[in-house]
Specification:
single chain, Rossmann fold
Length: 190
Amino acid sequence: MFYRDERLALFIDGSNLYAAAKALAFDIDYKLLRNEFMRRGKLVRAFYYTALVEDQEYSPIRPLVDWLDYNGFSMVTKPAKEFTDSTGRRKIKGNMDIELAVDAMEMADRIDHMVLFSGDGDFRPLVAGIQRKGVRVSVVSTIRTSPPMIADDLRRQADNFIELDELKDIVGRPPRPVRAHDDEDAESEA
């Protein structure tokens, strides 16, 4: 699937990858993920895309974004939009598809292999366009959830499909031990 001398670029749809890993019950260690793909080829760039809620006092994703930014990932962020849906529930929207697609098309002339971490079927035309430029495309997601986290047409379009669950032992973070007071907090919230 990979050749040691090929130039790779990773394109990580942050919210999609997070949802897939969570559905498979593990957390990703991004240092291990980056090292794994550096081992598989010549890693040119690792992009991570996510929307951030700007007006929150504390954002749970902020420590991850900062760590990635300092540790070899090219961070692409934008403010998330907050709105109220027709049922009156507060929703947050932060689609990064266009930013990812533009960066991928710009990088296509400088890479041999694109690795897309997303199962979003909206990326099928992007994958086809990248392939027309002579770049091989691997898609990382999962079919081991119900329903599968990858769109069937995206999986068919890709040159390779990499099952995220099979990367669990390579890029998964070991589970943190539960501390005694964590159990008490969980019980008091129930």
